Amino acid sequence: MPERLLTKQINVGNIKIGGQNRVVIQSMTNTKTKDVDATIKQIHDLEDAGCEVIRVAVLDMEDAKAIGEIKRNISIPLVADIHFNPDFAIEAIKQGVDKIRLNPGNIEDENKIKEIVELAKEKHIAIRIGINAGSLNKKYKHSEEAMIESAKDHIRILEALDFRDICLSFKSSDPIETINAYKLAARTFPYPLHLGVTEAGGMLDSSIKSSLALGNLLLDGIGDTVRISISDDPVKEVIVAKKLLKACRLYKDIPTLISCPTCGRIQYDMLPIVKEMEEYLNKLEKDVTVAIMGCPVNGPQEASRADIGVAGGKDSAILFKKGQIVRTVPQSEIVKTLKEEIEKF
């Protein structure tokens, strides 16, 4: 397991972030927040997938006033994403939100900033300052250093009001710029860091960019929360995040699927089995490694560390455990057999 960078611990609802606590998985709804029923349903789906903190967009006062009803119907901490309008932040806090994403330097009324901070102190609400490379103030020249300077400007406002329950993010659509910005931030600030590559694209592009950037940072011990930004169903963000954290040896109770890329030796219909088992394992909380291999020539040996596996023969597969062959299973019973063995594991 990578040695974690020590950062200041903050509370977001009942979850502790920073202070070398476990890395927390976050996502964001893409429903209209004022559509309370749709937003709650999507959050429930995300909860079931393993999301631990959820963020909603607050575009107007109706969205802000919906926070209370949403909060009463979900089980994970709720974050309000607010830009420019301080009244939305004030209302969201009054409605019981657990954290707000806000850049205080974007609010011109100092009295409103003080009101937000005093309310946040009273309610023990953390504030995330989110710096995006693509939306820096025009006074900064685009660079990783400029992102850090922008954060300093915002942080100074909060610290001057004796507020330090702060989380920071430094997102870019460029994974290398993201890595550099967060590494610089880790050397500069004591506050917990929320990791993400912004505007990362669809499932394929985002998985590659996010794995490159976040995997690099996590292996260096940097990062306290993560969001994988995908232009798709946000449940997919949670699934990719879980798999990434498992690959970095930061999470345990996540299944691992091993499968070969297939070749001319394959004699059974393997790919539909991989797809069905992948969907099944995505919903499972168990530290089990499952292998689906194309042929018995190398299958059990190459996947000998798997807890349970199959290797295809002609319209069938051999079932093996820890590299030891158990029996032959007909094609029609492979998925059923795997699921039964996993349930028993």
Care to describe what's here?
The chain is built from eleven helices and 15 strands. The radius of gyration is 23 Å and the shape is elongated.
Largest sheet: 8 strands, parallel
Largest beta sheet: what is the strand line-up? 8-7-6-5-4-3-10-9
Strand content: 15-25%
Dominant shape? elongated
Detail the poorly predicted runs: none
Order of helices and strands: EEEHEHEHEHEHEHEHEHEHEHEEEH
**What structural category characterises the helix and strand content?**
alpha/beta
Radius of gyration: 23 Å
E-strand count: 15
What's the number of helices? 11
User: What quaternary form is this?
Assistant: single chain
- The mean pLDDT is 92
* Amino- and carboxy-terminal Cα gap: 24 Å
Relative helix content:
40-55%
Explain the layout of strands and helices.
Elements: E1 10-12, E2 15-17, E3 24-28, H1 36-49, E4 53-57, H2 61-72, E5 78-81, H3 86-94, E6 99-101, H4 110-123, E7 126-132, H5 144-160, E8 166-171, H6 175-188, E9 194-195, H7 203-219, E10 225-226, H8 234-247, E11 256-259, H9 271-282, E12 289-293, H10 299-302, E13 308-312, E14 316-321, E15 324-330, H11 334-344
